[in-house]
Structure to design on (1041 residues):
């Protein structure tokens, strides 16, 4: 556990300290759960009461908030960003030791950059390239001729298959698989025949990929994830997809083959997108939605069923099988209704 | 393969044996598939015929059922529970050998309890704690300062990341990832900035986690799975979720960040639950349902579409885009209908 | 990188070469992206223009297409199949070296067939059987007494748990887990009790399993995937399922316990199928659909919601909670409508 005095935190983070400069701070916590040796932060007038009741030993706050609080404060212009820096300072993630762990198995002709950290039981295959300052957690696998850029962080047990290319500062979480074969099949007489999958996966700079997410290599061309894209856990991205820069995709999403998603999109959790579609820039797909058509205008799109008590659902859902008949019955009634003025059919 | 005589099974399991005490039994099977050297069981009058036609060498049954069957029987009060014991006896799961496999890589300062079994190519990082009698299957990874309680069973290739805390008798299946970073992002000018994720995952006693399931660490506070919770395969639990004791969650479920699910709930397969919700105790969510609101009363909740032949679906689904217009047309008809008594609009 | 002359490609692939026999070809690419040292192919009149504009150094084409193209061509009867052969020739997947990598940990009594390739950090447990010519990528794990047939290809980091049986020419992708415990629970007084899972997973010949897919072992009997079945990534197949031969299942599908799916079916991505169902041969389930009933006739089945702009969805979805009331209001109107001839209620 690291221990910082309030004064040392101020020296590292900037801002103006109000209160006991010698107070010992060991970690960061939320306002609700912080103890006397912990740091928290407050942004927004609505959290004022929580802040004044918090047991936190030190609060990061703006001058305006600090003026309303009888607490030790580190006063800064942007408490949220400074708190994030403080969290990294107080809670450094454990990394493998400098250099290459003796149990790692590195092909002779692999290129290993300067200042790497390579953990236990890592396997780096022939011709692979590991950039300067990159970290490979325990049990990672880097396939033949794969290239990982500088200052990347691969958490334990990440698999990057042969020939894939990753940019700088990429972060990959445990269990993700970059570059498995796409699902390419051709029906031949009486069985499925495998279509060779020889494209690569290209991940741009600053891409982050969540735990147990899978990104398939392209069939012939590459599967491309542009710079700044953030992918959560358990996502499936099929062969030949193209995801535009700074798009964020939440957990459990599936994207079928050859679909192109634009830049600055946000795809909600568990959304499913079929193959060979084009989704333009700045589209938001709501969680749980199913996308089966191109989307050509920015905006929010949705296709989920509302939840009901099961008995209500049973009564209502039965009619989904008869909507067409229901609509025809309304039309029939309209034809015979006394007041024809009401009979405007929409569309 | 183990071989038990009927007499030895009776000695180990209790009950009264009727039939050949020397019969050799090698394994357990269902009534339909059992052979003459296999044990099966029968509960419920409706399975009487299947039992009388089964080739099983020995049946576990109540006295009442045994009286109707001309077969070797082990007669007990609770055949289901005794059969489960017999299955464990006949089919012991293979475990790593006692002690620590020479290929395992254990940090010098890790605490390893008595009577552990640690398999090949396991990595235990510095400061980790492995409880008494715990089993780590081949290729498991236990991160720095993680703590695993006594008598836990980690199947091969499980990843428990740094600082996470697991209770006693926890069972983790292959490929699950405990403690990856949550999906914490803040938009800054022109890109996503990573919000540090420094909370832990806390698993209570007797929790079971399925294959390739992912549970993210909390952002600041912890992600908490209470005692007795059972999670199936391919589940995603996001940062800061809290799952109450003895809740069971089927495969492919996704639960977004900071959602709290009560105790004794049952979440059906592939259900998706958005973030920051509260679901009370004793709620059942049907398989495939989408939960986007708090649930405040126990009961069964559902939101799925009924399956149709594709042609029927095309005809019906088109109207889903026009339900609001349909409803307005009905209201218009009601206004002009001759018999006003029928025109009660619900809700 | 391999380099072939056009003449050498013709010698290996057959067909008639038209153009420069000495041209150097290094790889295969799509018509759009091919460079002058790359091979591509053209099938179908509608791709004629793309082919004539392509920079590809050599095109595989039929005589009829070649006659319309002023390009170097390898003329064959079936360009698609010959191109697939060419792709494998030009892009051989890197395999582990022949024999057993010194870092692999192989139980003394494991049976290792002739001509295997076993990669770094592989673990093969006691009594396991690896067939002739089979490849185990780095970090694979084969459990005790598991059997893998001849000429199988396990990509890096595949887990096959104890006792499972795989046929010949099986292909398993990174991160898949074959034979984890099924989700067998029995409620006892105040907690869930684990039902032992002692069946196996049986994979027939030529089965392919995608990255991070999980197939659970049977509870007592086996989970069976018949010959020629193709499974994409992130699929969950629960205990005791039976999948008929040559069925193809796209990514993110979940199939609950004891369901039987027939032969020659196609299950679209993210479809969810509940337990204890029977689906007959030659059924297509559309992507994203939810199957909660037996399917007894071949055909296409669907149950998805159409996507809408979020504001339209809000207006329309509200009525899903009142479809039953809507239907009753229509019936009331019909009872009082002047022209009774129109009032035929369907179904």
């Amino acid at each position: 556990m690291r221990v910082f005095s309030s004064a040392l935190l101020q020296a590292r983070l900037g801002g103006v300290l109000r209160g006991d400069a010698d107070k010992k701070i060991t970690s960061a916590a939320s306002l609700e759960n912080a103890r006397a040796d912990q740091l928290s932060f407050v942004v927004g007038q609505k959290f004022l009461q929580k802040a004044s009741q918090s047991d936190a030993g030190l609060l990061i706050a703006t001058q305006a908030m600090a003026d309303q609080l009888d607490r030790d404060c580190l006063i800064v212009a942007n408490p949220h960003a400074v708190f994030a820096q403080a969290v990294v300072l107080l809670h450094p993630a454990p990394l493998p030791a400098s250099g290459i762990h003796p149990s790692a198995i590195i092909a002779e002709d692999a290129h290993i950059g300067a200042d790497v950290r390579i953990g236990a039981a890592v396997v780096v295959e022939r011709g692979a390239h590991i950039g300067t300052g990159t970290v490979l957690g325990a049990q990672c696998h880097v396939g033949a001729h794969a290239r990982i850029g500088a200052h990347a962080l691969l958490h334990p047990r990440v698999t990057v298959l042969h020939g894939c290319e990753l940019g700088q500062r990429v972060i990959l979480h445990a269990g993700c698989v970059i570059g498995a074969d796409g699902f390419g099949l051709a029906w031949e007489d009486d069985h499925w025949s495998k279509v060779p999958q020889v494209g690569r996966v290209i991940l741009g700079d600053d891409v982050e990929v969540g735990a147990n997410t899978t990104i398939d290599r392209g069939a012939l061309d590459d599967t491309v994830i542009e710079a700044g894209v953030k992918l959560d856990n358990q996502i499936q991205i099929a062969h030949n997809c193209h995801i535009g820069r700074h798009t964020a995709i939440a957990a459990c999403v599936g994207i079928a083959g050859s679909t192109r998603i634009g830049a600055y999109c946000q795809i909600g959790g568990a959304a499913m997108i079929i193959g060979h579609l084009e989704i333009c820039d700045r589209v938001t797909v709501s969680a749980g939605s199913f996308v089966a058509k191109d989307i050509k205008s920015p905006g929010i799109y949705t296709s989920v069923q509302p939840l009901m008590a099961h008995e209500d659902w049973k009564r209502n859902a039965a009619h989904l099988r008869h909507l067409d008949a229901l609509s025809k019955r309304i039309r029939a009634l309209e034809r015979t209704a006394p007041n024809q003025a009401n009979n405007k059919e929409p569309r």
